């Protein structure tokens, strides 16, 4: 009997292997045919990259790529900074882009596929690192409690418990774990976060130097007034040093101005996607300053009262026109756009289905709405469909009554994964089951698509299939605030019910003009082709940087054509080490750890700009390559990095 089972199992495995090989060959032939039909040149070598296609492809043709598969926007080949790698970059981006033509939602979870190969050694050392940090932290807390001294425990000689204003007479303001994490883990690497700057957030940036005299509990900006001259002299002799003048308030008992020590860095962390921070004087200065002369910096009122100007109305009509929607409303804060709009749309008796990787602003809005919340696996349209089926059949918990409405929320580009949404499959599922679709385009609007119209344009989805379009002005437009674009009925409802419109201060008219001017540049209404150049430069810079990082053997998340490029660090000790090594070499980067991401998945997140030059990116890549060797980050090539 055992032999028969072994034989049967081997035959089944052989049969399945043959089926998979046959299906893979068929899909590869199909995709190669699509690629060859779009290019007369042979396919360039692409290293170890392999094409991933779904087993349930659609019948979409290569013509659907027409709007995105165009020649680079340069006057001639000599002006193309990436002419030597253009073919390979285009192939890799087109290969990644074809996922949307060959997938129905059952096999698109790129992040899950990549993260499924976390090296065992990296996972083990990560858990071990956190265990050591927590153990040492508890030991130090115990010692501080016994000896009544420490950075976070006031000496017993300073204040007696019986005094009314003693902290010991109050109940804890913070949860014990949150307080412990901040004291014993976060403060150890606090110098890697919240770095103050002294310039505009362009391709290069001046970062103020900080020092700590109490073991990183507090940080002080380094300047002339600091008495520790030896520390200051050490920083002055360092590389990439610069000096900035900080003007102090007249009430300060010191000189009118003080010299601060800064570091000149290549900016790889700011959301300056289209580079308006670099050429603001040429592109936006005149109209913005004119608005400042005509209108106030702040209306000091909500939109319901005296907070609406002609620029607010103009911006809303421009957003609606740009996205092909009936109407739009703008808010003064991007985070609050989600956090206040979702509670205005949903209430008790409604169902909200949220991607598990959605931004915390969506999470906060969902919690405040009172709706029943479920999450589906990241970018998995099939899992979304299964949840929708169950929700429709089973209805509300306990009563089994039908849901009043169902809203699905996804993002255009996921900010921690650098991955764009599988919008085609998800929108089809929502249409099939009559669920509303809410798309957060905070990072994709102005940064994706040939004309910058975001994830809908990039994935070939009509904006009319998206019920609510959300976006922010803080990334591609060089401003602040956010918008909601939808039908007239939805926008009218939000004007009356959304807290951001009814109670919050309205968006600054000066910022409105900044965003309007940015829109005009992107849409080509400034009578130049600068918008096209910016979009092409952003796409090329991001793809080149991603391609080179992948060649180094680093674990990279996300998709080509995305300006966000996460590099996996895993181990908590490498979070600070990577940030400090980059800063020492004149690179300003963002590192992310728990609880912003899962405990195993610490990472560095690079944000690429259209203002970066290839020379700047090559210098950064050279430094990162050296750091990757020192910190052993090449997890794609070795288990041990």
Q: Roughly how many Å apart are the termini?
A: 46 Å
For this entry, what is the oligomeric state of its chains?
Answer: single chain
Number of strands: 18
Decide which structural class fits the backbone.
alpha/beta
Q: How many helix segments?
A: 20
Q: Which regions are unreliable across 5 or more consecutive residues at pLDDT < 50?
A: 34-68, 155-159
Across the major sheet, the strand order is: 6-14-13-12-9-7-8
Q: Nearest-angstrom radius of gyration?
A: 27 Å
What does this structure look like?
41% of the residues lie in helices and 13% in strands. It has 641 residues and is of the alpha/beta class. A 7-stranded mixed β-sheet has the order 6-14-13-12-9-7-8, sandwiched between helices. The longest helix is centred in the first third of the chain and has 37 residues, at 2-38. The chain starts with a helix and ends in a 10-residue tail after the last helix.
Fill in the keyword field for this structure.
alpha/beta; four-stranded mixed β-sheet; 20 helices; globular
SSE topology:
Blueprint: H1 2-38, H2 86-97, H3 110-115, H4 120-147, H5 176-186, E1 204-208, E2 210-211, E3 220-221, H6 229-236, E4 241-247, E5 257-267, H7 280-283, H8 285-294, H9 310-323, E6 327-331, H10 334-345, E7 351-355, H11 360-369, E8 372-376, H12 381-394, E9 406-411, E10 413-414, E11 419-420, H13 423-432, E12 436-440, H14 455-459, E13 468-472, E14 482-486, H15 488-497, H16 499-502, H17 509-522, H18 530-551, E15 564-570, H19 572-584, E16 587-588, E17 590-592, E18 602-607, H20 614-631
Parallel strand pairs: 5-16, 7-8, 7-9, 9-12, 12-13
Antiparallel strand pairs: 1-5, 2-3, 4-5, 6-14, 10-11, 13-14, 15-18, 17-18
Helix pairs in contact: 4-5, 8-17, 9-17, 10-11, 12-13, 18-20, 19-20
